[in-house]
TrEMBL record:
It comes from Gryllotalpicola reticulitermitis. This is ABC transporter ATP-binding protein. InterPro entries: AAA+_ATPase, ABC1_TM_dom, ABC1_TM_sf, ABC_transporter-like_ATP-bd, ABC_transporter-like_CS, P-loop_NTPase, Type_1_exporter. Keywords: ATP-binding, Membrane, Nucleotide-binding, Transmembrane, Transmembrane helix. The lineage of its organism: Bacteria, Bacillati, Actinomycetota, Actinomycetes, Micrococcales. SMART domains: AAA (SM00382). It comes from the Bacteria. It is found in: Cell membrane.
Length: 631
């Protein structure tokens, strides 16, 4: 299970010290994180300035009503002259209502601005993360669970959404309201103001501590959420459910899910509860201040302090009560920021991953003219060369034998080259190195005469078409799957490619023809049908170089022959690398390379290799005996 960090039943278990240390180490980085989060808002400076102005104006306006309240009491309701002064009262009340309407309207505008900015920032972050992940090398995906990647994109980015949306307006609005209330309180009476704010620093210190705890829990919660997503992704996919059903593992899969879910519940409850004592304390403290103010006011009046009227006390306690929500709001935002710091750290961690394979600054496009060895450099066909290539998979153990060990060969432009050999010999690995899905540990792979490291990835890949062992189709129509190779392809082009791959007749026999949905990963099609659609897709791309990795493996012998003919004609004029177990499919190859234990152990044509009477001849004889058992 990913991560390893567990806070089970609200306690961090003994084996999780590493994760715990990691979480603790995240806390001091939050200040730097805040600067980086601030940077995300830079493109929206204009909107933020308008928001700030709206907040300032409405906050400034909010200072006025309490002062008017004082006048309502002292000049309107209970003037020293006695009796109620209605005209004064009406004017004061009218001004107050107008002010409330104005600040209500400004509030709506401000909400629109902040919702727009927050969601735009979050949307941009999500796309940036998605695009960055697209640039990561293949090995990143082979060593990371899909569900874990999905979780960063969905749960972590989604988790910071409310912070991005609410933070700006909340911080600005609440700060200004707190300052305004403080100013109003000072204007009303400075002695009472001191009483009201004397304990504030204690609350701020307590808040920081609570924030750190919450950040830690938030990190563990997201980690557990990503494990839950990974389990869902693994077990509720078509392949996963097939596996679970065929091994009767539904109960244990449910138990695994329930276990992680239990962990998630514990963490969510802890997250919901952390800080609640703190907020209860703040609430009690702020709510009791008016009572204390009455008491202190009594003392001050008894002590002969002038200037404290009934109006002052009512206005002061009104303002002070209005301090409660902005203060609580600020503390919540500070806590949310600290909590979301853990989520931002996870997002930035992915954004900071440097792709191991990327275009060099001086990378060039593929040009057949660079192919010095090509018989006719003007011809479009492309040659491929491996020059003393040694290759180890990134996650292989030190001291382990390399997967490809000093492999050298040259495939001339337009040649049909076959790679054969025992399972696990390294044939597919050879085909991965050509489009630079992986990079040689030493030696060079040359494409059209140039080291693939000097080429632009999109240019290189645009010249290569791969039909792999495992066919991947999207949950979309057959036509949409085919157009993935060539978005603007016409119906006639689709049909031509499908005819060539011997799948057109099958497709038109479906009630919805080319619009038939292939189902999740193509499960509504047979293995052979999927394979032929994949071949048609590559034919549509019309690449100069074809890589066929067991492309006919899922076909019965009749359709194998038909597709083989299609592939043979498709291979004409293209350089082709065909990886084959069934040697009958490659007897006509221009050159056959026999790979064993990561080395090229034999090379030549079918006839030459048979005459050589080595590994190939043995394999060929074995297969012939299997296909045509002695009667
Ligand atoms: P087959 O005919 O069975 O498809 P192959 O000759 O194509 O086999 P490769 O797929 O190239 O063999 O694998 C060569 C070796 O590299 C195998 O031992 C395999 O276990 C290992 N290998 C393949 N992919 C990875 C990977 N992503 N990380 C580590 N090792 C890998």
């Amino acid at each position: 299970m990913g991560g390893g960090g567990r806070v089970r039943g609200g306690r961090i278990s003994g084996g999780d010290f590493a994760r715990q240390r990691e979480l603790n180490a995240q806390a001091p980085k939050i200040d730097r994180l805040l600067a980086r989060i601030g940077g995300l808002f830079r493109p929206y400076r204009g909107k933020l300035v308008v928001t700030a102005m709206l907040v300032l104006v409405s906050a400034a306006l909010s200072v006025i009503p309490p002062l008017l309240t004082q006048r309502v009491f002292d000049d309107g309701l209970f003037p020293r002259s006695g009796g109620i002064r209605m005209p004064v009262l009406i004017t004061l009340v009218a001004v107050m209502v107008v002010l409330y309407i104005a600040s209500g309207l400004m509030g709506v505008w401000q909400t629109w601005l902040t919702a727009t900015v927050g969601n735009r920032v979050m949307g941009a972050l999500r796309v940036r993360l998605f695009s960055h992940l697209q640039s990561m090398e293949l090995s990143f995906f082979t060593r990371t669970k899909t569900g874990v990647i999905q979780s960063r994109l969905q749960n972590d980015v989604g988790g910071v959404a409310s912070v991005l949306t609410n933070t700006v307006s909340s911080v600005l609005g609440n700060t200004v309201q707190v300052i305004a209330a403080f100013v109003a309180m000072l204007l009303l009476n400075w002695q009472l103001t001191i009483v009201a704010v004397v304990l504030m620093p204690v609350l701020v210190i307590a808040q920081r501590r609570v924030g750190q705890v919450r950040a830690r829990i938030a990190g563990a919660t997201q980690e557990s959420l990503s494990d839950l997503t990974a389990i869902t992704q693994e077990t509720l996919s078509v392949s996963g459910i097939l596996l679970a059903k065929s091994f009767n593992r539904q109960k244990s899969e449910t138990a695994r899910y329930a276990d992680e879910n239990e962990n998630q519940i514990g963490l969510q409850v802890r997250q919901a509860m952390s800080g609640q004592w703190f907020f209860a304390m703040v609430q009690v403290f702020l709510s009791s201040i008016p009572a204390v103010v009455y008491l202190i006011a009594g003392w001050l009046i008894t002590g002969g302090t002038h200037g404290i009227t009934a109006g002052t006390i009512v206005a002061f306690t009104t303002v002070q009560a209005r301090l409660l929500f902005p203060l609580l709001g600020l503390m919540r935002v500070a806590l949310d920021l600290q909590t979301s710091g853990a989520l931002f750290a996870r997002i930035f961690e992915y954004l900071d991953l440097v792709p191991a394979i990327a275009d060099r600054a001086d990378a060039v496009s593929v040009s057949a003219a660079d192919d010095a060895c090509a018989p006719d450099p003007a011809a479009q066909a492309i040659g491929i060369e491996f020059d003393h290539v040694v290759f180890r998979y990134p996650d292989s153990k030190p001291g382990e034998r390399p997967t490809l060990d000093d492999v050298s060969f040259r495939i001339e432009p337009g040649q049909f080259a076959a790679f054969v050999g025992p399972s696990g010999a390294g044939k597919t690995t050879v085909s991965y190195l050509v489009p630079r899905f992986y990079e040689a540990s030493s030696g060079a792979v040359r494409f059209a005469g140039r080291d693939v490291r000097e080429l632009k990835a999109d240019s290189l890949v645009s010249h290569i078409g791969v039909v792999s062992q495992e066919t991947y189709l999207f949950h979309a129509s057959i036509a949409a799957n085919l157009r993935y190779a060539k978005p603007g392809a016409t119906d006639a082009e689709l049909e031509a490619a499908c005819r060539a791959a011997n799948i057109h007749e099958t497709i038109v026999s479906f009630p919805e023809g080319y619009e038939t949905l292939v189902g999740e990963r193509g499960y509504r099609l047979s293995g052979g049908e999927k394979q032929r659609i994949a071949i048609a897709r590559v034919l549509l791309k019309d690449p100069e170089v074809l890589v066929l990795d067991e492309a006919t493996s899922a076909l019965d012998s009749v359709s194998e022959r038909i597709v083989q003919q299609a592939l043979d004609s498709a291979a004409t004029g293209r350089t082709t690398i065909a990886i084959a177990h069934r040697l009958s499919t490659i007897v006509g190859a221009d050159v056959i390379f026999v790979i064993d234990g990561g080395r090229v152990v034999e090379r030549g044509t079918h006839a030459e290799l048979l005459a050589h009477d080595g590994v190939y001849a043995r394999l060929y004889t074995q297969q012939s005996e299997l296909t045509l058992p002695a009667s």
